[in-house]
Design brief:
The structure is a single chain. The protein is mostly helical and 291 residues long. It has one domain. It contains twelve helices and two strands; from the N terminus they run H-H-H-H-E-H-H-H-H-H-E-H-H-H. The chain has a two-stranded antiparallel ribbon. The longest helix is centred in the N-terminal third of the chain and has 27 residues. It starts with a helix and ends with a helix.
């Protein structure tokens, strides 16, 4: 049973970059970016292609993130230059990515068994799962530190200001369109990184693996937002840590659901209901407090 929950923890760590990407798009820019479903699968597809062509796993990582960033740039350009609603822009790119992913992969799924991947190329622990956890914790920890540094820089502050008050930033001479495009590129690069990690952890890539994955990331961000409100913490560093905690809590809830013996066919329904509960609970509690 302990190994079951450790596996859930490993999956949560692999999905943390995607949750951070959704945090950037939704909480920093207030943009509901549905490109996530497509860029997550794109990351897994590029990973599978490069690993089967004997690319080193570390060399494949920047290539995967670059392709995810390109997907984000496409969404950003459609939204800012063509003046199309951000939600619709993401849906259009996500829909197009499904066909692109299928063409690139050449089949509906591709196994990655017996290939040298990120988790097997380095051995820090004798136990395979512990080795996976150690590498994932290092990557996610480094990622949080880099994001924390970025969001504290002048450009990071400009990103946050653009999401809060685009009229003010435009008056200050900040190119809002460029900042949004860059932010969406960063968010989808992180999402593709999650696809990269999950594909290697699960040892396969499937064309449908990204369907509904945005709900998982959204649930993590909503849990993080609830923790921020309850603990009354506003620092950006704490918010990033809360996103990681949200991803862990979300996966542990799903793991507990499966451990209770619930049919796996109901897992997506449980996921949707859990996210609904997170969204609805604060709204239900406010009228009660006012009364």
């Amino acid at each position: 049973m302990s190994q079951f929950y450790l596996t859930a923890l490993q999956l949560a760590l692999c999905l943390c970059p995607m949750a951070l990407g959704i945090f950037i798009s939704m909480k920093v820019f207030n943009i509901p970016d549905i490109t996530t479903d497509g860029s997550y699968t794109l990351g897994a597809v590029i990973t599978a292609i490069l690993l089967t062509r004997e690319w080193p796993a570390l060399a494949a990582m920047p290539a995967v993130m670059l392709t995810g960033a390109v997907a984000g740039v496409c969404t950003g350009l459609i939204h800012t230059k063509l003046k199309i609603d951000a939600l619709l822009s993401g849906i259009l790119v996500m829909t197009g990515l499904y066909s692109i992913n299928l063409i690139l992969l050449g089949r509906s799924n591709l196994p990655l068994i017996n290939l040298q991947d990120l988790f097997t190329s380095r051995s820090f622990f004798t136990h395979e799962l512990y080795n996976h956890l150690g590498i994932s914790i290092f990557i996610v920890g480094l990622l949080v530190l880099l994001l924390h540094y970025l969001l504290k820089t002048d450009f990071g502050i400009a990103m946050r200001a653009t999401g809060n008050n685009p009229v003010m930033t435009r008056a200050l001479g900040i190119n809002n369109d460029l900042v949004k495009i860059t932010g969406l590129a960063l968010a989808n690069a992180l999402t593709a990184l999650s696809g990269y990690l999950v594909a290697q952890f699960q040892s396969f890539t499937d064309i449908n693996m990204g369907i509904g994955i945005v709900i998982t990331g959204l649930g993590s961000v909503l849990i993080a937002d609830a923790l921020r409100v309850w603990l009354r913490v506003t620092g950006i560093g704490w918010q990033l840590l809360f996103v990681l905690s949200g991803s862990l809590i979300f996966q542990m809830v799903l793991a507990f659901t499966l451990a209770m013996g619930i049919d796996p066919n109901f897992l997506k329904l449980v996921t949707a209901l859990f996210v609904l509960l997170i969204v609805a609970l604060p709204r239900v509690s406010r009228p009660l407090k006012n009364d």
